[in-house]
Amino acid sequence: MAEDLRDKLGAQHLPLRDQVLAALRTAIIDGDYLPGERLTEDRLAEDFGVSRNPVREALRVAEAEGFVVILPRRGAVVASPSSGTITDMFAVRERLEALAARLAAERATAADVASLRALLDQGREATQRHDLARVAELNSTLHLRILQISGNPWLSSIAKSLYLHVQWVFRLGAAERAPHSWAEHIQLVDAIESGDGDRAERAALDHLDAASAAAYENAEGGYGVR
Amino acid sequence: MAEDLRDKLGAQHLPLRDQVLAALRTAIIDGDYLPGERLTEDRLAEDFGVSRNPVREALRVAEAEGFVVILPRRGAVVASPSSGTITDMFAVRERLEALAARLAAERATAADVASLRALLDQGREATQRHDLARVAELNSTLHLRILQISGNPWLSSIAKSLYLHVQWVFRLGAAERAPHSWAEHIQLVDAIESGDGDRAERAALDHLDAASAAAYENAEGGYGVR
DNA sequence: TAATTGTTCTTCGTATACACTTTGTCCGGA
DNA sequence: TCCGGACAAAGTGTATACGAAGAACAATTA
Fold it and tell me: Which of B176, B181, B186, B119 is nearest to B148 (CA)?
């Protein structure tokens, strides 16, 4: 009850535009709306059961985030990530996640490390169960958690946005990420626990290299993105 | 004329919401709207002479960009960058601009280098004239130009946004940036021209270190940002 | 003084209207 | 058949109005 009150003080009723934005993002990432597809305001409004205003506001933010492109007087279309984009995104992610790993190593508390280890355990378990969806989800959670531990809000929000886009491109390409090499993750968490920034950074870079290599293999088959 | 036609094909009549967004950004960066200041939709609509709709859309984007904070059912207030933010921003900028310098070194054409040198010359000249505003402007242009040369749109847009925020914090703090050490810039451009990625990266890092040191000195006096 | 109530301001969402562009279609003429 | 222009349809861009609900502040009451 006390928690309810505290929540109510600030807010709790998240605006429709935010719900629309979230729904739009996931719809695009999941491929429900394909690149190049036209997104008229009326259509989105109908799809989400709201009026045009919340839709418009969500669209502007989605544009700023790079999920849609808005052509003046023509409306919005889902953005079309090109193969060049993958290289570019990984180049930036490399730097950012290396920094995040370093900061996390320098700042992680025992509780932080424990939470990372817990994710690692769940990941191993899910891998054994061959629950690929869960594995991918845990992978995301782990990376996001490290960003959070880094304690740099800018880093966190930028990398998070990049991460979403990478996921998007992945889904467009191959069905699902390959079975993750949790060994790399363990290396990374070990390094963070050690408090050795250099080592953490190296571990992050190694992991990213492997991930980007996998990305290219996946991309080979090709996303039908024109 | 051919250019006019090409422009007309796509568009030319940039929407009110974009004009409002641009005006809002500069108003915040210039300190016309101070951190913590309340920005009601009606007030902004009146200030810019438009209806509430374009204002709302501009506000959402400004929120996504971190210039304003929107409290549910309370409205928007200008964001309040704290001293921690400066450290965080520079940590990210360091990585990003180092990457940009490396990419620029690897990809710069002769024409690119020439345009950088031209900016350098103008900068030196403006410094001699003690035209500080122009110096600051040329400094911005130079950095943005390097980002553009890097050819990585993600890097470019992220770093650009960070750059805007840094400027904002600067203006809040001290009146104007100290007379720039163009020597560092020359080092950087030399390194880019040489095509040596490592060297360019080092030069960028050196420059950022100096800039962040200067930032702290300036910040010492204190931005009255509560 | 402290708690409660009421008032006011403002956001949030909806609905509507209309000008203006872009696009697509149709039709007549060469 | 092919071309060109008139015409209609679709959709964005902007403005405006209105009701509901939350938050802040003032006034009132115990």
Answer: B119
Q: How many CA atoms lie within 13 A of B150 on its CB side?
A: 30
- How many Å from the CA of A153 to C1' of D25? 34
What tokens appear for A15 in the block? 């605006």
- Closest partner residue to B99 (CB to CB) among A57, A63, A95 is A95
pTM score of the predicted model: 0.88
Which residues in 58-117 of chain A line strand C, with CB less than 7 A from it? 73-74
pLDDT in tens, B160-202: 999 999 889 887 765 455 555 788 899 999 999 999 999 999 9
Residue B87: closest CA among chain A residues belongs to which residue? A152
Residue of B nearest to A87 (CA): B152
